[in-house]
Write a structure and sequence with these properties.
The chain has 160 residues and is of the alpha+beta class. The chain contains seven helices and four strands, in the order H-H-H-H-E-H-H-E-E-E-H. Helix 2 runs antiparallel to helix 3 and helix 3 crosses helix 4. The longest helix is centred in the C-terminal third of the chain and has 20 residues. It is globular, with a radius of gyration of 18 Å.
């Protein structure tokens, strides 16, 4: 998202102050998938706040990303029920296989990985979500099969 593309969002808040920062960040991330460095600087100018303050607020909340998500955005629940049922092993498998940490995107931009506090599906733990689709009782083996299915889907699209 270029800073010009931010203008329609910022124009909704002509005399905005610090109290409207989170809704602006949410709209920008929704439109772009993440908060770019340029967007943070432009928002700061609009609100008369230093970029460091914008980053301070955005990094406090785990809903904000500073990297573009991958084509397949993976969320791993780390809530209590999922933790007890093995989400730490699941996360470790994904990190090792994708060679990324949570909050990062693979070099080929195919996958991004995120941890979330709770997805509200405790009875189905451990839970993993890919692009909004929930997967229940995910073992490490099942996670690897899901990754492979995503890769096969991309291969089909590329050859079509």
């Amino acid at each position: 998202m270029t800073t010009e593309n931010l203008e329609p969002i910022l124009q909704k808040y002509p005399r905005a102050s610090r109290d409207i920062l989170i809704p602006i960040l949410q709209e920008v991330q929704h439109a772009n998938g993440f908060l770019s460095r340029d967007a943070v600087i432009r928002i700061g100018r609009h609100l008369s706040l230093p970029a460091s303050k914008i980053y301070g607020v955005a990094t406090f909340y785990n809903q904000f990303r500073f990297q573009a998500p991958g084509m397949y955005h993976i969320q791993v629940c780390r809530g209590t029920a999922c933790h007890v049922k093995g989400s730490a092993r699941l996360l470790e498998t994904l990190m090792r296989t994708l060679k990324i940490e949570p909050g990062r995107t693979t070099r080929d931009r195919l996958f991004s990985l995120e941890t979330v506090a709770c997805m509200g599906a405790c009875a189905l733990s451990p839970v993993m979500c890919i692009n909004g689709k929930f997967h229940a009782k995910v073992s490490s083996a099942k996670a690897l099969k899901l990754l492979e299915a995503c890769r096969l889907q991309e291969a089909r699209i590329a050859t079509a």
